[in-house]
């Protein structure tokens, strides 16, 4: 199949349409922040890449740099790698791995009928039915050499956020990447979103949360209000907030610890 033919396949068209919807409809604030931050030559990570709606934009904005997409579900990873090749995203590497606090193997819980909700945490087991997969996991500090400057971590890992950050502590201290991530109390047990925020603050990070198209200081976030858990499908309410952006505070250098 020629490049022009591959570009026009159904999978390729759907891939690009998802990317357009993500940037210009669903996550406009996050994309605006990422666009201002990334530079040609940067390294960006998409952790929990799923179907890859961030990937075309990260690939473009990093230009001569590279994008590493981590997706532990083998079929999703395979499809994502194929569509990246088909659409000429040559600076994208797809890793069929989960990211966590350590490297090795671990069970991934995949709720029936909702594979985007797959998680390394036992909260996923609360679904009525689920399957488990033994998947490779990797700590980012093991994956990247000390000299590789990672500029962005985009994270969607359904409750494993703190594990991802702890496995990237060296990177967070040395290179202060921008952090754009989902985090919800409903996925965290034990623990809360505040545990994640506090950990990042010990490393010199300051946070914001996304409410609609507004970026607001984290001091104004109240899980009892912004992640209220009442009613069916409560996480789909327009006033439900689960997207966060953390940056290293200006002039702050986190020590080696």
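^ Assign residues to that structure.
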């Amino acid at each position: 199949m020629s490049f022009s033919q591959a570009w026009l396949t159904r999978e390729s068209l759907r891939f690009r349409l998802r990317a357009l919807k993500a940037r210009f409809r669903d996550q406009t604030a996050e994309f605006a922040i990422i666009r201002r931050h990334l530079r040609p030559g940067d390294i960006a990570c998409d952790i929990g890449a799923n179907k890859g709606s961030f990937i075309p934009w990260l690939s473009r904005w990093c230009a001569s740099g590279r994008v590493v997409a981590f997706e532990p579900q083998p079929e999703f990873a395979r499809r994502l790698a194929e569509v990246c090749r088909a659409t000429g995203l040559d600076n994208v590497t797809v890793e069929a791995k989960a990211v966590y606090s350590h490297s090795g193997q671990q069970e991934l819980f995949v709720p029936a009928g909702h594979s985007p909700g797959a998680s390394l945490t036992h909260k996923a087991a609360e679904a009525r039915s689920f399957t488990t997969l033994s998947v490779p996991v990797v700590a980012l500090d093991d994956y990247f050499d000390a000299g590789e400057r990672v500029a962005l971590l985009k994270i969607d890992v359904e409750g494993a956020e703190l594990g991802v950050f702890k496995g990237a502590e060296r990177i967070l201290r040395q290179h202060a990447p921008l952090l754009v991530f989902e985090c919800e109390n409903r996925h965290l047990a034990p623990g809360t979103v505040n545990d994640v925020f506090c950990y990042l603050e010990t490393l010199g990070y300051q946070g914001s949360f996304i409410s609609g198209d507004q970026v607001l200081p984290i001091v104004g976030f109240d899980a009892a209000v912004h992640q209220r858990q009442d009613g069916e499908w409560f996480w789909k309410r327009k006033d439900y907030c689960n997207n966060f952006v953390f940056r290293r505070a200006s002039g702050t250098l986190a020590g080696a610890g």
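The first helix runs from residue 3 to 7.
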